[in-house]
Fold this sequence. Notes:
By secondary structure, the chain is of the alpha/beta class. The protein has 8 helices and 10 strands. It has a single domain, classed as Vaccinia Virus protein VP39 (Rossmann fold, 3-Layer(aba) Sandwich), CATH 3.40.50.
Amino acid sequence: MVEVGAATPDFISMSRHFREMGWRCICIDPNPKYVEMHRQAGSEIYQYACSYEDKDNVNFQIVHKSDNYTDDVISDQSYSALKVKENYLSHDNITINDLPVVNIKVNMRKLDTVLSQLKIKRVDYVSIDVEGWEIEVMRGFNTLKYKPEIILLENYTHLPRYQEYMNKIGYTLDKQVEYNYIFKKNQSASAFSVFTRWFNKGDTRKSV
């Protein structure tokens, strides 16, 4: 599986469940604190922001709410992105000035670039939780080449364009858990039972 926007290796982690089942989990996150936590936990982690182009030394906005990264509290998970999305702010009736933003410089890569460097030929499951930049990440990901059966996108503000985009590239919305939208590749069923069992049993490790 591939998790873009990995955050911590434990709390509200989409990859933790699959690592525990023995899957190879490729995690991607630009936040140096999260990267270090994954490395200490033995995770496979790559320090990039993902979008539709490759570029070095770009700005990334960390919304730093807490120095506590180890307990079950929100630290930098919410809002942090290449740029805090306006629809997130309006949805929560706040402005950027209401948020404790810390600007850092990161390297940005297409998901295709990362997977190509790792010589990955196929993935089964992709989870993308990047605070409103999910479609930009998808634009840098060749689903025809990597053929994921399941793609989970966080769609916090429930924008119709998420389903519209996924339908255009051959994926259908199969399940929605709050703002987690689970898309299944058309005429694909083999891996989907894993995800159905996971979400139906009420697992609490879901993305922010």
